[in-house]
Every structure is written in structure tokens, then in C-alpha cells.
Amino acid sequence: MSRLLAPLLAVACAAATPAAGQNPHALKAPAPVLRLAADEARPEKTYKAGDIVVAAPWLRATPRGARVAGGYMTITNNGGVADRLTGGTLAQAGRFELHEMTMVDNVMRMRPLAQGLEIKPGATVKLAPGGYHIMGLDLASGYTQGQTIKGTLVFEKAGTVAIEYTVGPIGGGSGHSRH
Ligand SMILES: [Cu+2]
């Protein structure tokens, strides 16, 4: 990875993390816009392939000009053997990576999951801001809140799962001030 790209990725990941003192649950709340009642009643979207269930995938909306975006979801393995998320695709993204956020010297950093992400039998793994996430890089254009964006996830055993991300808010307390 180029030295130029690394700071960009750090910004994107920081943007996915609540600022200090901010209630992380507040980020999950919808922006104060009018929503249809039917929208509220819609059940959480799930996608199944073999023993794998992917629930409620969402992407964080991108600030203007951003070339990277983080995505989150919950993955459950209902089978009796471990499976592994190894990659995927994301509409408008030139590249797709699996990442993990970790605290290093009090700074949130991320690293690619070179071995993918194991989903143990019976386990539910949450990809969420501040932890595991998928990342789209080399975006041709940004994502706007409310959009539905197609993508795929590739599992070692369950194979390829077509999913649709809902684009959520950019979120407050972006880490841009760190730069
Ligand atoms: Cu990342």
C-alpha cells in the first residue's frame, strides 16, 4: 500500500468512530429527517447463503471527495463448521478490503485482515464502527445517505452472497481534526 493512501484510510476509519465523550448509540440514530411509517415497520434485511446469515448491512455516507467508505453488518454462522469471510465487491468501489480497527498508543488504527474473518460455528460476528468492517477503496463516486448500494461477500464455504447496503449518516465527530 502506498504511503499516500495510509493517511486517507486512517481518516476514513476515524470517521467511523465516535469522538471521545460522544454517545456511540447516537450515531446509530437516524438523521432528523422525515421518514415514512412504512419505513419504520420494515424488518431488518437479511441475506442467506448456506449456513451464513448476513443481517442489516449498511455503509457510512462519504464526505464530499472521499475515496474510501466503511461498511458494517452482522454475520451469523448457523452451521456446525467454521466459515471465513475472505472478500467481496462493492458497487462504485475499485477495491474491497476487510479491516480491523485497533487501539495503538491511544490512537485508533486499522489493519487489513489478511486471513479474512473467521465465523465460528454458532457464532455471530458484528462488523461495527470501531471494530471489524469492510472497506471500499478507489470509489468512483461517494455514497449518500438513503441510497441502496449493491455488493457481494465471499465466504470460503458459503460462497458468494449478494447483499444490499443501506447508506446511513456520515456521523458526527469525524476524526478529520486529527489531521
Ligand atoms: Cu478500514
What does this structure look like?
This protein has a single domain, classed as Sandwich (Immunoglobulin-like). Strands 1, 2, 3, 4, 5, 6, 7, 8, 9, 10 and 11 form an eleven-stranded mixed beta sheet that branches. It is mainly β and 179 residues long. The protein has helices at residues 5-15, 24-28, 37-41; strands at 46-49, 52-60, 69-77, 83-90, 93-104, 107-112, 117-119, 124-127, 132-139, 148-155, 159-168. The protein has three helices and eleven strands; from the N terminus they run αααβββββββββββ. Helices cover 12% and strands 45% of the residues. The structure holds copper (II) ion.
Number of domains: 1
The CATH homologous superfamily is termed PCu(A)C copper chaperone
Please report which band the strand proportion falls in: under 5%, 5-15%, 15-25%, 25-35%, 35-45% or over 45%: over 45%
Instruction: Please trace the helix and strand order, writing H or E for each element.
Output: HHHEEEEEEEEEEE
- Taken from the alpha-carbon principal axes, the silhouette is globular
CA radius of gyration: 16 Å
Number of strands: 11
Which structural class fits the helix and strand makeup? mainly beta
| Helix content estimate | 10-25%
How would you sum up this structure in a few lines?
The chain is mainly β and 179 residues long. It has helices at 5-15, 24-28, 37-41, and strands spanning 46-49, 52-60, 69-77, 83-90, 93-104, 107-112, 117-119, 124-127, 132-139, 148-155, 159-168.
Helix and strand arrangement:
Elements: H1 5-15, H2 24-28, H3 37-41, E1 46-49, E2 52-60, E3 69-77, E4 83-90, E5 93-104, E6 107-112, E7 117-119, E8 124-127, E9 132-139, E10 148-155, E11 159-168
Parallel strand pairs: 2-11
Antiparallel strand pairs: 1-2, 2-3, 3-8, 3-9, 4-7, 4-10, 5-6, 5-9, 10-11
Bound molecules: copper (II) ion.
